[in-house]
Amino acid sequence: MRRKAGLVLLALAVFFAALSPLLRWYAFPRLAKIPANQYQDMVLEAKDATLLDYGTMKARKVSKVTIVQTLKGNVEASEKIEKTAGKDVVVWDGLSYVVGPDGKMVSKIPERYIFDAHTQEPVHATGEMVDGDPVKRQGIEFKWPFLTEKRDYEYFDAQARITAPIHYKGTQNFRGVEVYYFEQTIPWTKVRFPKTMPVEGITPESVAKTGTTRWYTTVRKFWVEPLTGAPVYGEEIHKEELRGGTLLGDRDKVTAFAGHVKMREDYIASTVDLVKSNRALVLLLTSYLPWGFLALGLLLLALSLYLEARSRRPGDPEPTKDTEPEPVSA
Questions:
Q1: What pLDDT, in 10s, does the model give residues 129-153?
Q2: Quick count: other Cβ atoms within 10 Å of Cβ 162?
Q3: Cα angle at 322 between 319 and 325, to 5 degrees?
Q4: Residue 42: enclosing H or E segment and its boundaries?
Q5: What digits encode the pLDDT tens for the residues 20-57?
Q6: Whole-structure pTM over 0.85, yes or no?
Q7: Nearest to 55 by CA among 87, 100, 108
Q8: CA distances from 315 to 98, 305, 308, 312, 318 (A)
Q9: What is the DSSP annotation of 95-114?
Q10: Predicted confidence (pLDDT) per residue in 7-18, tens digit
Q11: pLDDT band for position 250 (50/70/90)?
């Protein structure tokens, strides 16, 4: 019986030992993915900012500029793209809506971001756009891959429609969560005017006729939780200028917007809580279960060897052999 039990334990030990790397390196990359129906919003603020008054065409100091960013999963569009892409695809319909201190719209820029649900790599398909203009993204946007590495990544800038490196700058602790800090600088770049302008009757086409151009630079900062690849906090030191043309009169340039954009406190707290809960799920698949199964396999192996040794323990009486009865002599 001991030998049979030992063989059963040995089989279980091999099973759990083999399941450990299988779960980590095969199951996890296939199970970890962004849900297609995810919805999230974020409010950012730039306090004591500079904002252009389009009525006077002069820059003025304002108490606050608010940016509301929303990302809504488009399940119908993702299912349609998956039929030809042959992979799990997520489609995010995004909107960046900027309002001044008086609550009036400054700009609104819609986006459609299409990416691989597992790797977060862009997937190029009809409908990929920024502010109605077709784009072909290279690099990530909004979210880093699961198990983010300590290295530079390519990050897509929606304002400039370009991809540039975002640099890993070190590991930090942000409100009890270990994060990787990334930073990207976009130098002064000529960019397009938003299709929706803050003043009725003014269009990008009418502004272009004046010869005035729009320029933009930013320093983008993200604190990313590496297991989930989710930013727990973000900032931008953002500047925009209008340059040249008859719209500015005798001026060479005027500030359209300048401010240090930061996440609002209540959204920081909710984001950190959400990332912590998702982090536990990733740890379960990448660490807790694989290491637990490996430890269980080693324990079962040790128990199997122990039972085998017990079954062969020295000093146990040898089993008696059946012998033929000897003939009785008269």
A1: 999 999 999 999 999 999 999 999 9
A2: 15
A3: 145
A4: strand 39-53
A5: 899 888 899 889 999 999 999 999 999 999 999 888 88
A6: yes
A7: 100
A8: 86, 19, 15, 9, 8
A9: EEEEE-TTS-EEEEEEEEEE
A10: 788 888 888 889
A11: confident
> How many CA atoms within 13 Å lie on the side-chain side of 64?
12
Amino acid at 297: G
User: What does the longest C-alpha to C-alpha distance in the chain come to?
Assistant: 144
Query: How far separated are the first and last CA of the chain, in Å rounded?
Result: 46
Strand order in the sheet with 153-157: 133-134, 129-130, 105-116, 89-99, 58-73, 39-53, 253-263, 230-243, 213-225, 177-191, 162-174, 153-157
Query: Given this model, what pLDDT does residue 330 score?
Result: 46
* Nearest CA-CA partner of 246 in 213, 218, 281, 211: 211
Which residues partner with 91 through β-bridges?
114
Could you tell me the two tokens for 18?
């083999």
